[in-house]
Amino acid sequence: MKRTLKAGVSTSLLVALMLSAACSNSNNQGNEESPKNSTANNAAATATAAPAEKPDPYSKMPELVEFTTGNTVSTEVNMPAGESFENNDVQKWFEENLNVKPKLAWTTSDQNFAFEQKVNLLIAANTIPDVLTINVEPNGLNILSKLVKAGMVEDLTQVYSDYASPYLKESMKLGGDDVFDPVTFDGKLYAIPSLSDIETAIPVVWTRKDWLDQAGLQEPQTLDDVETALKAFKAMGKSGQLPTQQNIYNSDTASFDFVFGAYNSYPGQWIKGEDGSIVYGSIQPQVKDALARLAKWYSEGLVAKDFMMNDSNKAVEAVAKGSAGIFDGSWWAPWYPLPDSVKNDHNAVWQDTVLNGEDGIAHARGYGKIRSFVVIKKGFKHPEAIMKVLNVAQDANAKKLDWYNKLTFEAGGKYTDAKMGLLPVSISAKDPHEISNRYKDIMAVLNGEKDVSTAEPETQAQVKTIQTYQAAADPFADMALWSGANNFYVGAAGLAKNPVQQTLPAFIGTTDLMQKKKTALDDLEKQTFLEIITGKKTVDDFDSFVTKWKSMGGDEITAEVNTIASK
Amino acid sequence: MLKPTRNKEVIHYHIMLFPVILFLVIFSIYPTLGSIMAFKSFDPTKGIWGSPWAGLENFRSLFEIPDFKRITVNTITISVVKIILNVSCALAFALLLNETRVRWFKRSVQTVVYLPFFLSWVIMAGIFKDFFSVEGLINGLIGQLSDNEPILFFTSKSWFMIIIYLTDVWKGFGFNAIVFLAALTSINPSLYEAAEVDGASRWRKLTHITLPSIRPTIILILILSLQGILSGGFDQIFNLYNPLVYSVSDIYDTYIYRMGFQNNQYEFATAVGLFRSAVAFIFIFLSQWLAEKYGDYKVF
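^ Those are the sequences you sent over. The predicted structure of the assembly is below.
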């Protein structure tokens, strides 16, 4: 369940923390002066708002538009005293320049899907806030279809075509022609999606290079190497156990995703089967092999005996304490959990890579095309105001806005270490392979193969951070700088070491039958997997699990999923 | 036992009762009306009342789910064991404490054992999880005293249930003990004096005076706990369980939570809840009847 938290952190990290730049001429000023007259005629056609102004993606609203929204708050938030989501310099910019102001109707914890539960309850009570950003995982698209069916959200087709900035529209094309399909119902656009950076889903194995060197080992390339490294660490008096949490897959930190990936298996996901139809990942034979490996690890003590009691924070305590030298994480681990480790032990040198699977190929899971989306409540008077905020957010997230970079990304910025998204409502449309492409671009500049002035603003910003870090007298004095610099320099490097084959989900969302029957199936699966790993059941019990899963409604659900997907 | 009294004499009791009634109306009776959702196909924009009817569809799927039998058995087993343990431990403790002569000791012990009752399970679960973890205090002691492997308290089905019962008794017995202690103080001291004159031993006094005197209280507490037999203690189990022990610890309330709030099947969860309430209703009548028969006590 930690998945949303980290997914949230990862997005908010991308959104809130990786911003900066040496780009002095931002696009939006140009756009402010050149409203798109061509779309002006359509504006009057919007059913909800018929603004007198010509549609201009960046112009100030004639009067103050306040909107309510809900948010998650992490325990790591580190805002300057007296400031909050509603009251900070970023919000002030939006109020002064767009005349738009968010009001926080409620906040939830970022743990255990509290946000999704809250939204579901608000839908049931028919009291959603004006604007909501919902993650696609675990069941965001299902929430959206509920909202649309219930007529609770605004049709944004016209607003998007009139008010979305040319840059945003251009960026959306990076996701492909069908990027709007999941949020389009009967030809109408009901939400503005954020594109996935699919590589963020890749589980990487983080190892301590300093310890491996001491043990005379290379960076692990296979599961066998991981075993060897764990045993070597144990012999050195460190922990010989892999930090592991209770959610054993589809979690971005301290799960077994890398093990499942090594067997080319994708539990919990709907994937394309060999015959082209959509099948459920958890019942595929490859999962059995992965479970056999995990059962072996458990019996050999390479995994904590009571790992199923840990959440990911608990699991990575050993990383911070300097006892664990190897763990499953995401490429952005320099933001979490590595800072604690490095703070405590300046000699800790971390590196990451994607393991080569049993067949020699580095397999990994992926995300669907869209990662989250923004909806606007039906009847909200100025959806175009939200669209304008999103236009600015897109520019900000692409690090094109100098003022925003200075506040939230650059070393020593007021909110660089705030660990919280400050945009009133955010969106991000980037290349799905943004991370590895960006990494290559950054390295090209750092290696002198490319001139920094020709690079995109985002690359310039990242390069500047890395150079600031490298020039710093004490590299650990500013941990936000440490994280910001190492995120790409070390973290993203791990994605480029082995060529990765990602398996993207073929279906995301919840069907009617799933609602009815999937809880029981999930319970059965969780129990069986844990029992097999802990040795309470034999690996061969996996086969009877598959039979049971199918007969308990799994087959019906699979048929339903295939019907929906083929439409 | 209670005789009808004239209104004027008891009016102040009624006034004192008012906040409780108000509480019940707001938090118990009014929401009960929402149970109608169990027969509907819920549509949030139409609300509970406006949603279309679904007949008994939700109940049909209730009896179809394979977990239904399991959660029913679990709920009843857990409740019955908890009731028996809680009452017997509290009773034994009250009797022992009652024999204590030193007043300040009696008072302070009473307060201390009563305290856990006020602690939230959210906090307690966190403490117990650490306490019984592989590297926790208990396993640390086991490791010190023997060569045994650490015990996986939370993943072994039998150990998990022992922990559930133990912690529940630890948290609740102080409260029940107070009721028993109150009952003990109401025993007429002249009975003991008479017994002493007859030369009765302490044990004799216990079996022939104390226990018979508080028998109605014991039976009453037992019987009244019967009404809660289908609750089983949501906060405790929810905060402690994990999928490995679902088969022995999943109860109605945890199941309703997973279905209703995590899977948004409000109608179905309501149906489970309504079913649970219906059975609980039968138990209430049963307990009233038993209370009247054996406890010499009548509520209505």
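The first helix of chain A runs from residue 2 to 17. The two ends of chain A are 31 Å apart (CA to CA).

Shout if you want it in another format.
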